[in-house]
Amino acid sequence: MRRLTALALLLLMAAVPAARAHGDVGVLELTLAEAGGGQTVRYEVLLTYANDGDPASGAEVVARVDGGESVTMDDGGGGRYAATVTFPAPGEHTVTFTSTEPAATLEHREVVAAPTTTTEAPATGGTFDDQLLPELEEEEPGPWWLLVVMGAFAAAMIVVAVAYFRGRKPPAR
Fold it and tell me: Tell me: the pLDDT tens digits for 45-91?
């Protein structure tokens, strides 16, 4: 009985860290491509982990036009990244968004129109959150299976404790 209980405990302990791991692969999704003044476009992307869909914050995400110079995107939290990209000339371009940890790549075709002769009013100031990203919805609770694993772990610990104390002999007098 003790061996079976100990084996169950070891298997459960090995499964808990694996259940919390996000993995090394991500998914990038373009959430906004908004033309600005001149030859600029404001981009927002969402980076999530491929294995569980959780947002990947704290990553380095870059945007690169036609394989040229890269622009580091600002981390807005919740897996959202944003940057304004200036295109070298009007026409059709390929914008490549890349993250290294987790690894993800997304290509987007952008057609940039020639600048118009009218003048535009300058953009008003504001913070990153209120000007560039929509309000983030309240996050849903974590996966239900994690609660099941934690409950099973607690139950296994109780079984191990009961088995240990039942099999223990009282001290000799």
Answer: 999 998 888 999 999 999 999 988 899 999 999 999 999 999 999 99
Instruction: Please tell me the total number of residues recorded for the chain in this structure.
Output: 173
Decide: helix, strand or coil at residue 110: strand
pLDDT given at position 105:
94
Q: What is the 3-state secondary structure (H, E, C) of 13-69?
A: HHHHHHHHCCCCEEEEEEEEEEECCCCEEEEEEEEEECCCCCECCCCCEEEEECCCC
Tell me the whole-structure pTM to 2 decimals. 0.56
Question: Which residues, in sequence order, are CB contacts of 30 under 8 Å at separation 6+?
Answer: 43, 44, 45, 97, 106, 108
Domain enclosing residue 84, as ranges: 26-132
**What are the distances in angstroms from CA 138 to CA 73, 78, 92, 133, 135?**
23, 10, 38, 14, 9
My answer on whether 98 and 118 are in the same domain is yes
The percent of residues in the chain predicted with pLDDT above 90, rounded, is 38
Q: Percent of the chain having pLDDT more than 70?
A: 66
CATH of the domain at 85: 2.60.40.10
Count of structural domains within the chain: 2
Pair (16, 33) in one structural domain: no
Shared domain check, 152 and 81: no
